[in-house]
Amino acid sequence: MSHVPTPQPTANDAPPKGGADGQAPKDKRPGGRRIGRKILLGLTVLVVAAAGTGYWLYSDLDGNIKGIDLDQALGDDRPEKLPTSGQNILVLGSDSRAGANAALKTGNVSGARSDTALVMHIPEGRTRAVAVSIPRDTLVTRPECTKADGTKVASAQRVMFNSIYSQVGSACVVKTVEKISGIRMDHYMEIDFAGFKELVDAIGGVTVTVDQDIHDSSSGLDLTAGTHRLDGTRSLEFVRTRHGIGDGSDLGRIGLQQQFMLALLSEIKKQDLLGSPTKTFGIADSLTRALTTDSELASLTSLARFGRSMNGVDPSTMETIMLPVSYDTIDPNRVVAAEPQASTLWKALRTDSDIPASAKKSPATGGS
Question: Are 194 and 100 in contact (CB under 8 A)?
Fold first, then answer.
C-alpha cells in the first residue's frame, strides 16, 4: 500500500476539531499533564496556606483575650439570673499605672484601680439600654471574696469602691456590684488603660462634643467648646479629667466618662468590631489585647455572637445615670449610696421597669 501524505493546514484553515473518532484530541505536548498537575497543586498549597494563616491569625487574636471564670470564682453566692433574655454587663476601665501605662501621665504608680465602672442593663428585646456609673470614691461593704491565688479575704465595711480591684481582684468587684445591686452580672468586660489608648488609635479616634472649654493641667486636656476627634492620648486625658469640669471632684468626671464610653461604643458598633472581630487585624489585635472578659466571652466566636445579638442597641440613645450618692458624713472626700434613690434604681433594673425620675437624682450633685 502506497503512503499518502497528510495534508498540511494553510493559514486559512481552521484547526481540526477532533480526531478520527470524533473525540477531542489528547494533549500531546511534552509535560502538558504535569503542568496542569503543578498548577492544581500550587493552587491547593495556596488555599491551605491561606487557611493556615487565617487560623494562625484567629488563634493569635483568640489568645489575646484574657478570661475570668466568674462561676468558679464566685460560686453559688450570687443573685438569681433574671427570668428574661435581658443582659447585665459590668464594664470596668482598669487604671494600672505600671509598665506601659506609667508613661501616660496618669498620676502615681501605686497600683491598679478600676477608675471607670458601668453597669449596663439591656432589657429583653435588646433595643435599648441603661448605663449606671458607680463613682470610684463610693464607700461600700466589700463581701468576703477569694483572690485568684485562692486566698480568702474577709468582708469589710466602708471600703472605697475602686480599691477592690487592686486589693482583691476583678471577680470581687463583680461580687461587690452584685451585692449592692441585687443584680446578677451576665457578663464582665474590662479594658486596660494602655490598651484603651491603642484601641482608640487603631479605630481612627473617637468623636465627642463638649459644650464648654475644658482646661485641666492635671490630666493635660485642653479642649475648646465644640466637636473634636480625639486620638488615644487625648481620649485618656478626656476620661481622666476632673479639675477642669464641675466641682473638681470625681463626680464631675463621671459625665465625661459616660459620654466617652458611649461614643466609643458607637464607634465600635459602626465599625462592627464585635460582630466581625477579624475584619481588620490591626484593630482586632488592639481590641483583643485590651480586653479581659468573663470566660463565656473570651473567644472571637463568642464575642462575635454577643456583638451580633446587640446590633439592635444604639449607644447614642442609651440612657446614662450616675448611682445616686450623698457626701459621707464622716469623710467629706467620699460618697455613699443615697437612699431610697439607689435601692429604687436597682429595683427598676432588676424588674425591667421604668426608672422613676426620683431615682436619678443625686444629692451630692445638687439633686434632691
Answer: yes
Task: Please report the beta strands in 11-113, taking only residues with DSSP state E, as ranges in sequence order.
Answer: 66-68, 87-94
Listed in sequence order, the residues at least 6 apart from 165 whose beta carbon sits closer than 8 Å to its beta carbon are 92, 94, 112, 113, 114, 172, 173
In tens, the pLDDT along 31-54 reads 556 666 555 555 444 444 433 334
CB 132 within 8 A of CB 321: yes
Contact 252, 245 (CB under 8 A): yes
Q: What is the pLDDT of residue 346?
A: 96
The letter for the amino acid at 193 is F
DSSP string, 236-293: HHHHH--TTSTTSSHHHHHHHHHHHHHHHHHHHHHTTTTTSTTSSHHHHHHHHHHEEE
**Within 13 Å and on the Cβ side, how many CA atoms surround 99?**
8
> Binning pLDDT at 50, 70 and 90, where does residue 318 land?
confident
C-beta atoms surrounding 2 within 10 Å = 3
Q: What is the pTM of this model?
A: 0.75
Query: For 322-339, b where at least 16 C-beta lie within 10 A, e where not — what string?
Result: bbbbbbbeeeeebbbbbe
Q: What does residue 19 show for φ and ψ, rounded to 5 degrees?
A: -85, -165
- Angle made by CA atoms 274, 278, 280, in degrees to the nearest 5: 100
| Cell of residue 252, nine digits | 464631675
Cell numbers at residue 132, please?
Answer: 449606671
Q: What was the pLDDT predicted at 279?
A: 62
Secondary structure (DSSP) of 105-133: --S--S---EEEEEEEEE-TTSS--EEEE
Over its C-alpha atoms, the chain yields an Rg (Å, rounded) of: 30
Instruction: Let me know: does 89 contact 120? Beta carbons within 8 Å.
Output: yes
Question: Could you tell me if 237 and 228 are in contact, meaning their C-beta atoms sit under 8 angstroms apart?
Answer: no
Please indicate whether residue 124 or residue 131 has the higher confidence score (pLDDT).
131
Answer yes or no: is pLDDT of 105 > 80.
no
- For the chain, list the strands marked E by DSSP: 66-68, 87-94, 114-122, 130-133, 139-142, 145-146, 152-153, 156-160, 187-192, 206-210, 214-216, 221-223, 226-230, 291-294, 319-322, 325-327, 335-337
Tell me which DSSP letter residue 80 carries. Answer: P
